[in-house]
Amino acid sequence: GLADEVCVMYAGRVVEQGSVDEVLDRPMHPYTHGLIDSVPSRNRPGAPLAQIPGMTPSLSALPAGCAFRSRCTRATETCLTEPPLYELDGRRVRCFHPIHVEDEAWESR
Questions:
Q1: Nearest-CA neighbor of 36 among 103, 85, 100?
Q2: If 0-12 CB within 10 Å is exposed, 13-18 middle and 19+ buried, where does residue 11 land?
Q3: 107 phi, psi to nearest 5 deg
Q4: Which of 7, 46, 93, 97 is the most buried (most CB within 10 A)?
Q5: SS3 78
Q6: Cβ atoms 26, 18 nearer than 8 A
Q7: Cα angle vertex 63, ends 60, 68, to 5°?
Q8: Residue 19 is inside which H or E element, if any?
């Protein structure tokens, strides 16, 4: 109720931007997805909280390419290159392998 848009940042970079409803309901970046899955109210009572594996990299020694690469289950060799902030369906996502994107045009970009 306080904002119309949200930006999700990882290691000092915007990784996803869009309307609050779209980002929270259908996150495209794996980090955003991991954050939302780790919210306690989304877990079964008594079950361990979902966690994003690994540690955040040091901002003074960021790895080459995507900073989230070492923690991401979707990472490939392509992720050794820094992804740009793509415009997609009125949203922005900094990822070569966004979630919930099935469009063949995306894969052939």
A1: 100
A2: middle
A3: -65, -25
A4: 93
A5: helix
A6: no
A7: 105
A8: strand 13-19
pTM score:
0.87
Render 64-98 in DSSP notation, one character per residue: SS-TTGGG-TT--GGGGSPPP-EEETTEEE--SS-
Residue 81 structure tokens: 């290159």
Tokens 């040091």 map to which residue? 58
Contact 4, 20 (CB under 8 A): yes
Sign of CA dihedral 28, 30, 32, 33: positive
* The total number of residues written for the chain in this structure: 109
Residue identified by tokens 């990882």 is: 10
Pairing of strands 5-10, 13-19: antiparallel
* pLDDT tens profile 24-75: 999 999 999 999 988 887 778 888 888 899 999 999 999 999 999 999 999 9
Q: Are 84 and 94 in contact (CB under 8 A)?
A: yes
